[in-house]
Every structure is written in structure tokens, then in C-alpha cells.
Amino acid sequence: MPEPSRIVALAGDGIGPEIMGAARELLDRLGGFEVEEHPIGGVSIDEHGTALTADVLAACRGSDAVLLAAVGGPKWDSTDPDAPRPEQGLLGLRKGLELFANLRPVRPSAALLDASPLRRERIEGTDLLVVRELTGGIYFGDRGRRDGSAYDTCAYSADEIERIAEVAFRFARRRVTSVDKANVLETSRLWRETVERVAGRHEATELEHLLVDNAAMQLVSRPAEFDVILTENLFGDILSDEAAMLTGSIGMLPSASVGASGPGLFEPVHGSAPDIAGTGRANPLAMFGSVAMMLRYGIDRADEAAAIESAVDRALEGGLRTADLGGDATTEDATSAVLTNL
Ligand code: IPM
Ligand code: MG
After folding, report:
1. Do 64 and 27 contact (CB within 8 A), yes or no?
2. Which CATH number is 196's domain given?
3. Which of 226, 248, 278, 309 is the most exposed place for a label (fewest CB within 10 A)?
4. CA 18 to CA 21: how far, in whole Å?
5. Residue-level pLDDT at 249
6. pLDDT band at 1, cuts 50/70/90?
């Protein structure tokens, strides 16, 4: 028997505990995991006054992989710059574990082609990966308020751009589409220059540049033509929600955040959905997809990752539809449908 993998499970807020419960059923079924739960986000603010304690960060550092459900909710919403925010837990974790590369694959399930707001002909064949820079840019720049104004600073070093561009080229099968705002922003001009340099080391892969506003448009007009979309933190946040909707619901999209070494963080792209929290109706499929990404990129059990993904596809082909997909299956129904197909 190999040693069990040590997983830190961070359920967080809103629907977080419900979908984490579903993920734990899946992990129990697969076997070989030792799971430790810890608070993050709003629940951690309520318990400890901060969204991420030093102890929880240390537990994550000592794990093989971190699985996170969702953070945030109206209870902790405030415009007071000094109030603790649930999102600080997630950002602190990304920064603390140096998870600079966020991978968000968008591959609409065949069974859901008619669930997308776009026509089937547009979506068919879509299989893209958003590679989002995750520890730099405006998310982590200097910010504050002064004399009735507020400011956020966007800064990138060439090294930060280079390492994320390398990840994009490593995953590309034919093309990297680098997204920036080089007609306006200095950080984007450095981005473009640096990506060009990295592209020189990967001559078999085509490179195209798109301005972010144009990319937002192309993503809905020709989604199937993208391969890897490489972009900075803020643009990646926005474009990945847009891309998620191609799959029919934001409840479908998983993500992996990885660094140069150490444990990765695996989480759905969607948020804590406070409007349906506690109703047992949350879609756990993005969470299952995140477990699959954890098995593939976090702990080297790629065969089981593929098995989870096909079980999800088969459950959808069998008619599984949660509320976000226009059906009435509960979280529990969705969980048993996937486990039955595993
Ligand atoms: C995401 C989320 C986070 C982000 C929030 C919760 C801080 O929207 O993972 O996309 O903006 O990165
Ligand atoms: Mg987001």
C-alpha cells in the first residue's frame, strides 16, 4: 500500500460545505487520502478574526494538496478598507503557497451542448485552457485611499511574466493566445515583449496577441478556435467566468493553481452562491472536476482523474441536471449519479 496523500480540505462559506461534503464522498470512494478540514474565509473571520490563520497556512504548506470549495458572502461584505474580507483567505493562500499559475480548462460536455447560451454550432469542438497569472498584477499591487480618492496599482516584472508564459507554452497543443491591453497599459507592453521572447523558445507553437476587449468578443464568437489563452491576473479572472458560461453553467468549471514546487490548490471557478446555500441544490460537478485536477496535477493519479471526468460526462448523458442547468437534481442526486458511473 502506498502512503495515503495528505489533503487539506477548506470548505469555506455559502455552498462550500455542501460541495466539499460531496467531494469527500468521492475521495472516500477512491481511497488513499488522509483529509484534514480547516476554516478559511468568512467562517475563519468569525472564529479567528482573520480569513486565513498562520496555522491553516502552515497546514496547507505541509500537505500534498489543498482542496478548496468557496469563500465569501453578504455577511462579510463591507466597503470599509480595514474590515477583514473572506477573499483575503484565498489570496493569502495563493500568495503564501506561491501558486503563480492558474489553469482553467473549458471543455463543454457533449450532453450539455444545448444548455449553453450560445448555439450548439458555436460551442462544438471547444476545448481550451485559460492560463491565468495568479500572484501578481493589480490583485497584489499597492492600494489605498488618500484625500477622497482610491488607487490600485498594477505591476509585473519580466520574470513573473516569463514563468507564466512558459507554463502556457508547455500546455499548448497548437497555439497560445496572449491577452493584454498593450494599446493602453505599460504592464501589457512588457507582457507582450516578454511573451514574444518566450515564444522564441517554442517555435512549434503559434503565438497570437489579442487585446482583452477583443478577446472577450472572440471568446463568444469563435470559442472552438482557441487552444491556450494566456493572460494576467485580472483579465484572467474576468475571461474565465465568461468562458465558463460556454459550458452551460459556471457550476461546471474546475481549476488548479500550481507553483514551481510544493502543494497545489484545487478549487471550482464559481463562488459561494449564498442565494442557494443550505438548500442542498448546489451543483458539485466543478468540485468533482477540481478533485480530478488534483489527482492529475497534484498527486500523480492521472488515471483516476480521467475516470472521474468520464463518470461526470456519463452522468450528464444519463440526464443529470442540477438547478443551474435547468433541472431539479440535488447535490446528493448529482453525487450518487457520478459515483454510480465511476
Ligand atoms: C476566482 C475568484 C477570486 C478571484 C476571488 C474570490 C478573489 O473570483 O478565483 O476567480 O478574483 O481570483
Ligand atoms: Mg473569478
Report:
1. no
2. 3.40.718.10
3. 278
4. 5
5. 86
6. low
